[in-house]
Design a protein that fits this description.
- By secondary structure, the protein is α+β, with helices and mostly antiparallel strands.
- It is built from 22 helices and ten strands.
- The strands form three sheets. The chain has a four-stranded antiparallel β-sheet with strand order 2-3-1-4.
- Helix 11 (288-315) runs antiparallel to helix 12 (323-354).
- The two termini are 25 Å apart.
Length: 725
């Protein structure tokens, strides 16, 4: 007879660990030939895939595009201007502003130095016009506008041109000499993006490794999912490179970085769920192959649905007009699908081949029982079950209060404020803004059909808010015009001037068929397009995610609860950003695309955990469990896995907050905070309490909602304080 604390297979006087080490007590059936051969075949196939994908993955960085046009709306005037300028004689121009400044006022020697250095630049490079020095009214600053088509559209040639100019332009003895302007800003941006790949990957791997070691408490097990995630990342880069070559999808430094984060974050989540279920099955099944087969049958549908919601949500970004958002859609979807493929094929094969010894020192022996300990999630479920109405109302109030923080979000992020630390291009433009407060140092670019160029010049000169107009290049049926606004860049006055130019010169009845662009116009178009994309993409994401949930859960009510929960999490996470970005982090603005991208990621990724929870709840209900028991069992058995997965995913996105670009910092912060809210508040308390309140109606109109009838609020038994690990 067994003692009350004795586990199956445990002899008197033995510890559970000793009993586990001696289990099983009966001879297991022999392994099948398929169980021996299939894992090796899968491993061999992946080795072949990696051999083919490796060289292609290394080429992805070579096709990344980080020009301004790659982050602009596809159909905007400013984008059309950039495209036409690239086709004009000499190609796209690289525009710089050389800024010479001395606090006490420029001396004659300073001006002579500036002239000599600008002449040296003109002697080394082919410029579109002879630079003319424009002094500031206070005599402290002298600026020269320098433009060249010599580099063309080649990013490396542009960066080399800008860096050579910077090497030529030198200050000293109190004289500062800097290169600013759109060309310098683009070079600084591309150099930052180029420096992201290595640190982003290494930091992500290190963070995931530490968390996996803490979760598994094994010196070996953590290496397997991490290695598989790395292989999935290489495959995703190779596939993305292939899509770029085949369909010319835009691949930016931002989208490539987010893809890596998704592969490691989502892939590790799937691995945690699979390994947790596999550990359970190893205690009930003699052979690892059979245990893995049962595991894949049990949690495979949830993992497939989870990855499907993420991929579907990401692909909805194809409906965006913003080039950077639209390009991120397929790259992010590729990352998730490659992670799914690796975690459902390669990971199971390696786990089966390595067997139970991989879990050492906590080996799940056949016939053994897991160590019993207090379940935090059982206690949480019990508190939600005793007062479901109060828990649901309090949680909803907390999320609503946090969402009010969105009212404190800083204004739209200016291009020069996109850097965490200010590069030379930004400091140069800041000097210009202080020295020339009444003059724009950033021309508005206009391209007009050549036959109407004279008319456009005249109309531009008479447009309110215009200080000067200069005719530029002609070619390909188009003529370029540079317009200097009276007001400083990115002020209300300059915005009004750009609007007036578009009205006077555009396609209207009084216009001349011109397009108005330039950096300031790009930022106006970026803001307006982001608002339009939010209205277009959000309904698509909600509809696609809802359809997948309905198909998985055979219900309308349950999916509606999950979708409403993740939308509330998005609002709360964005609200916390409003309380942190300006007051605590000192960020100068909010990236216009933050709302859309954070919504897509939080809804698609947040639903993952809802799928894990409610799919297990449905499994328990199918066995005949009452609604309350099914909900609490699902929380107790999946709570630890969901918490671990949430911590890993939040930590991987938190890596972005250490990057040198403000848009990445903001995106990483909002998603990390949202995932933590979703994991520890929404899934644990709100979804559980809502399920308890609704009872079987959570499965309406499926058959689980009809048999048997349930009370409006089921009686919740007091949970056992001891739950399974």
């Amino acid at each position: 007879m067994r003692t009350p604390t004795q586990t199956p297979g445990q002899a008197a006087g033995q510890t559970p660990g000793q009993a586990a080490s001696q289990a099983p007590t009966r001879t297991p059936p022999p392994r099948t030939a398929r169980g021996r051969a299939l894992p090796w075949a899968v491993l061999a196939l992946w080795i072949a895939v990696l051999a083919l994908a490796g060289p292609l993955a290394g080429k992805l960085s070579g096709v990344q595009q980080n020009r301004a046009v790659d982050y602009l709306p596809a159909g905007a005037d400013s984008t059309r201007v950039a495209e036409i300028q690239a086709q004009m004689p000499g190609g796209e121009s690289t525009d710089l502003v050389l800024v010479y400044h001395r606090d006490g006022g420029l001396t004659a020697a300073d001006r002579a130095t500036a002239r000599e250095q600008v002449a040296a630049v003109a002697g080394r490079h082919e410029l579109t016009h002879e630079p003319t020095g424009i002094p500031s009214d206070d005599g402290t600053t002298l600026m020269y506008a320098v433009s060249s088509t010599e580099p063309g559209q080649d990013d490396e040639a542009k960066n080399a041109f800008v860096n050579d100019v910077r090497d030529t332009v030198e200050g000293g003895d109190g004289l500062s000499a800097e290169a600013g302007g759109p060309g310098a800003l683009t070079t600084d941006m591309s150099e930052v993006f180029g420096s992201l790949d290595g640190p982003l990957l290494y930091t992500t791997v290190a963070v995931v490794a530490v968390l996996l070691i803490l979760i598994y408490r094994s010196p070996l097990l953590w290496l397997v999912p991490l290695t598989v995630a790395g292989i999935a990342d290489a495959l995703s880069m190779a596939v993305t490179y292939g899509l770029n070559q085949a369909f010319d999808i835009t691949v930016s430094g931002q989208s490539a970085g987010v893809m890596t984060i998704l592969v490691f974050g989502a892939g590790t989540d799937y691995a945690l769920l699979l390994i947790s279920r596999y550990r359970e099955e190893l205690r009930r099944t003699p052979h690892p192959y059979d245990a893995m087969r049962t595991t894949l049958r049990g949690c495979g549908p949830a993992v497939l649905a989870s990855s499907g919601t993420v991929a579907a949500g990401m692909l909805c970004l194809l409906a965006a007009d913003l080039n950077s958002s639209r390009g991120m859609g397929p790259t992010a979807a590729v990352g998730v699908l490659c992670a799914l493929l690796a975690m459902l094929t390669l990971l199971p094969a390696i786990l089966v081949l390595l067997g139970r010894r991989l879990f050492w020192p906590l080996v799940p022996a056949y016939g053994s029982e897991p160590k019993r300990r207090r379940s935090v999630f059982a206690a949480m479920g019990g508190s939600a079950g005793r007062r479901p109405v109060a828990v649901l109302a309090t949680g909803a109030a907390v999320l609503g209060a946090l969402a009010l923080g969105t009212l404190n979000l800083p204004g739209d992020l200016k291009q020069e404020d996109s850097f965490v630390s200010r590069p030379e291009s930004v400091t140069a433009m800041s000097t210009l803004a202080d020295a020339y407060p009444q003059r724009s140092s950033r021309p508005v670019a206009v391209v007009v059909p050549t036959e109407r160029a004279a008319e456009a010049l005249e109309k531009a000169r008479t447009t309110e808010g215009v200080a000067a107009v200069e005719r530029g290049r002609t070619g390909g049926g188009w003529t370029e015009i540079a317009v200097i606004a009276e007001d400083a860049p990115q002020t209300t006055g300059e915005t009004r001037t750009i609007g007036a130019l578009r009205s006077a010169l555009g396609d209207g009845p009084e216009g001349v068929g011109a397009y108005v662009g330039g950096v300031s116009a790009q930022e106006i178009d970026l803001e307006r397009t982001s608002e339009r994309d939010l209205k277009t993409v959000v309904p698509l994401v909600l509809a696609s995610v809802l359809l997948i949930l309905v198909a998985l859960l055979r219900s309308l009510v349950g999916p509606a609860i999950l979708v409403a929960a993740v939308v509330a999490v998005w609002g709360a996470a964005l609200g916390i950003g409003g309380l942190v970005f300006g007051p605590l982090l000192g960020l100068g603005g909010t990236d216009p695309g933050l709302a859309l991208l954070s919504f897509v990621f939080l809804v698609a990724l947040g639903v993952d955990y809802g799928i894990f929870l409610m799919h297990r709840m449905r499994e328990e209900s199918l066995t005949g469990a009452e609604p309350a028991a099914a909900a609490l069992t699902a929380l107790r058995t999946t709570g630890a896995v969901i918490a671990s997965a949430g911590l890993v995913l939040a930590a991987t996105f938190a890596v972005l907050t250490n990057m040198p670009l403000v848009p990445l910092v903001e995106l990483g912060f909002v998603i990390a905070v949202g995932v933590l809210l979703d994991t520890f508040l929404v899934r644990t308390y709100l979804v559980t309490s809502a399920s308890l309140l609704l009872g079987r109606r959570v499965w309406w109109p499926g058959r689980l909602s009809r048999t048997p009838a349930a009370a409006p609020v089921p009686a919740v038994p007091k949970p056992d304080p001891v739950g399974r690990a």
